[in-house]
Each structure stands twice: as C-alpha cells, then as structure tokens.
Write a structure and sequence with these properties.
Blueprint (H helix, E strand, L loop, with lengths): L2 E6 L7 H16 L3 E6 L5 H12 L5 H25 L4 E4 L6 E3 L8 E4 L2 H8 L3 E5 L2 E4 L4 E3 L5 H12 L3 E6 L20 E3 H9 L7 H10 L3 E5 L7 E4 L12 E5 L2 E10 L4 H11 L7 E3 L6 E9 H17 L4 E5 L2 E7 L9 H11 L6 E5 L2 E7 L3 H11 L15
Parallel strand pairs: 1-2, 1-9, 2-6, 3-6, 4-7, 9-11, 10-12
Antiparallel strand pairs: 4-5, 7-8, 11-12, 13-18, 14-16, 14-17, 15-16, 18-20, 19-20
Helix pairs in contact: 1-3, 2-3, 5-7, 6-7
The structure holds aspartic acid and magnesium ion.
Aspartic acid binds next to helix 5.
Length: 414
C-alpha cells in the first residue's frame, strides 16, 4: 500500500466528538496498510471568528499579523487530532505548515506554495507514524508564517499528495461530493461520480465552494487525483481527474452561484488606446482579483466600464479604485454589492452553440434580468440581482435536466 493523503474540513473537526470520529477513520485507513498524512482545517467556524476579532481591532489588519493569527486555528485542530490518535494507541505526530516543509512566497494572506520540502514527513512515515499537518499555512523564505487564502487547506493537501507521490488525495467535507448544484439550495441536485479538472476549475471559479480553486489548479498541474467525499458517511464521493467515463459526458454538467462579488461601474472613461490596460494593470497591482469585465460602445469619446471583484476586497481597495479612476480622467465610479453570478458549466458546450441562447430564454421567461454576461468555452455566466439568484439556479438546473433523485447530500448538516 502507498501513501494516502486525507484532508478534513472545518465541519469534520468542529468539536471533540467529531475529532474522535475522524481519528477512527484515519486509524481504519492506517490499519489497511496505508501510510497516512492528514491535513486539517481549523475547527468549525474558528477562522471566521479569528477574522472577526481582527476586524474589531483594524478594518485592514496588518497582513503578516493576520497570518500569525489565522494560522493558529489549524494548530489547535492538528494537535487535538494527533492527541486523539495517540490516546487510541497510535503513534501520531502533528506538524505546522512550516514544520511540514510547505515553502511559500511572501504574499501574506494569499501566499502561493513554491516548494514542498517533505523530508520531515517522510522521516515520520518511515518510522511508522501517522502525520497530521496544519492546513492553509506555510512559511516564506524570510521565515515568516504565511496563509494560503481562505479554503487553503485543500491546496495543502493536494500539494502534499503531489510531493509525496500519494495514491490518492481524499478531501473530506460535509457534503458527499460534487453536485450538479449546491445541494444546500437545490434539494434534488445530483451527485456527480466523476468530474474533469477542466470542469471542476470552472465550477470552483464560479462559486462551487466544495473545493478551492487553487487546489484544483494544483491537482491539474501535478496530475493529483482528488476524491472529494463526506466524513459523515462511507459513501464514495466524486473523483476529479483528467478524463471521465463517457456516460458522464452530458451537454451541461452543473450550475453554480456566487454571491461573493460586487460590481463596479466606472463612468465616463476616455475612449483611447491603453486606457483599459492602464486601469487593469493598476488594479492588478493592488492585488484585486477582477472577474468579469464589460466595456460599452463609446459615445462622444467616452465609454463605461463595468467589472466584478470580491466584495471582501472592496473595503481594502476603495481608495485605490478612486485614485485609479481619477488618474485616467474618468468621471467616477459606483459599487453595487447586491449582485450574484449564475454559471452553467459543461464540457459538452464546446460543440453546442445553442446552450447560451437557451439559458438566456429560460431566465427571460422567469422575468430575471441579466446584467452582465461572460463565457469561456465550457461556461456561461450571468450576473443577476442577488435576490433572484436562488430562483435562477433552480430554474436553470431544472431546465437543463440536471436534477436527480432527492439527495442525501447534507447528511452532515445539522
Ligand atoms: N481554515 C481556513 C478557512 O476557513 C482554511 C480552510 O479551511 O481550508 O478558510
Ligand atoms: Mg474549507
């Protein structure tokens, strides 16, 4: 048997009882002869609570200190899980990201893994120990603790699976896999047995919260097979890999929604070459992740530019946007947070030009207005009012025949 990397999300380790259940699961896998490397997230909503504390002190907390604070969440869960295993008579040892050799760049709160120096883990495995690693964190070349961005534990797990050449990377969460829509909103969403990296990337980028985008990118680059499943059942989940079985290849695969973005409209932008380049390179310098961009036809040498970006970056970057807008001589800008993005994803779309029209008609029939549209070869996204989003997802999911039997997806949910 080889190395198995498992990752347990916040709900899976939310309390002492849950941690004991997870310890049993790890012990079972170890008893089957696997070398176990287990990545944990912070317990329950621990990270949110730490963020809240920081925000009570500062609207824009110092990034290095934020990483010191947030990395503490995973330290608690890793130590408790290791204790639980030791209590059961197993030889377990916990490592922080730094001790586990997760080397990152120095961009605090959004660090990227540049290298994994897994010697210490390998040594522990060779000594027959179960290794528990704190997810979501690493260390920079300046020896400062960094974090990988929210949801970053998935990336830790995939990076370790790649570095250790693991058989599989099992990501345990509170749903039984990847669904045709968020089963917490669409009760008859269907579980997908297999999803390609390409589709999973589009889904993760469009708000499907089940796996973090970075982790899927990493898995694709390094060919790590992910098995996404629930820690509350023994059911198999969804396997994410390069190619899927023919039966799974439908025209469309899933619908997702994203309510985390705001829409920014810049008015009266001078319409000359280089203006868009200037705006978006300045915005990139502020480390704002712009998603959709739409520019209107110009009138009298001026145009409007609309784009979407994470709401959570808006407070931090309001001043920067104001300055950028003034620098290029635009008339002003407005921010609208009451929007949501609906996306339809499917590899089958590549060869079927009719999907977009069908999606727009279904929304029109329901009286839902589309404010922005963007597409890739396997995705169509529409910005709608946030109050319309759940209805829009339901309608599109139904319209494209994605529904299955009522799911047992949220078995872990209270
Ligand atoms: N605890 C971190 C978060 O809540 C990382 C993770 O859960 O993956 O974002
Ligand atoms: Mg998570």
């Amino acid at each position: 048997m080889g190395i198995v990397v498992q990752k347990y999300g916040g709900t899976s380790v939310a309390g002492v009882e849950r941690i004991k259940v997870v310890a049993e699961r790890i012990a079972k896998s170890a008893a089957e002869g696997n070398d176990m490397v287990v990545v944990v997230s912070a317990m329950g909503k621990a990270t949110d609570e730490l963020v809240k504390l920081a925000n009570e002190i500062s609207t824009v907390p110092h990034a290095r200190e934020m990483d010191m604070l947030l990395s503490a969440g995973e330290r608690i869960s890793m130590a408790l899980l290791s204790m639980a295993l030791n209590e059961m008579g197993h030889d377990a040892v916990s490592f922080t990201g730094s001790q586990a050799g997760i080397m990152t760049d120095a961009s605090h709160t959004k660090a990227r893994i540049v290298e994994v120096r897994a010697h210490r883990i390998e040594k522990a495995l060779a000594a027959g120990r179960i290794v528990i690693v704190a997810g979501f964190q690493g260390v920079s070349s300046e020896k400062d603790i960094t974090t990988l961005g929210r949801g970053g534990s998935d990336t830790t797990a995939v990076a370790l699976a790649a570095a250790l050449n693991a058989e599989v990377c099992e990501i345990y969460t509170d749903v039984t896999g990847v669904y045709t829509a968020d089963p917490r909103i669409i009760p008859n969403a269907r579980k997908l047995n297999e999803v390609t990296y390409e589709e999973m990337l589009e889904m993760a980028a469009s708000g499907a919260g089940v796996l973090s985008l970075r982790s899927v990118e990493f898995a694709r680059t390094h060919g790590v097979v992910i098995h996404c499943r629930s820690s509350f059942t023994d059911q198999t989940g969804t396997v994410i890999k390069e190619e899927v079985e023919q039966v799974e290849k439908a025209l469309v695969t899933a619908v997702s929604q994203d309510t985390s973005e705001a829409m920014i409209r810049v008015d009266g932008v001078p319409d000359r070459p280089g203006v868009a380049a200037r705006i978006f390179s300045d915005i990139a310098k502020e480390r704002i992740n712009v998603d959709m961009i739409v520019q209107n036809i110009s009138h009298d040498g001026k145009t409007d530019l609309t784009f979407t970006m994470p709401k959570e970056d808006l407070i931090r970057s309001g001043d920067a946007i104001r300055r950028i807008v003034a620098d290029i001589g635009a008339e002003g800008f407005s921010a609208d947070s009451d929007i949501a993005k609906l996306s339809l994803i499917g590899a089958g779309m590549k060869t079927d030009p009719g999907v977009a029209a069908e999606m727009f008609s279904a929304l029109a029939e329901a009286g839902i207005n589309i404010e922005m549209i963007s597409t890739s070869s396997i995705r169509i996204s529409c910005v709608v009012r946030s109050m319309d989003i759940n209805r829009a997802v339901t309608i599109i999911h139904e319209h494209f025949g994605l529904a299955g039997e009522p799911s047992m997806a949220s078995v872990g949910q209270p």
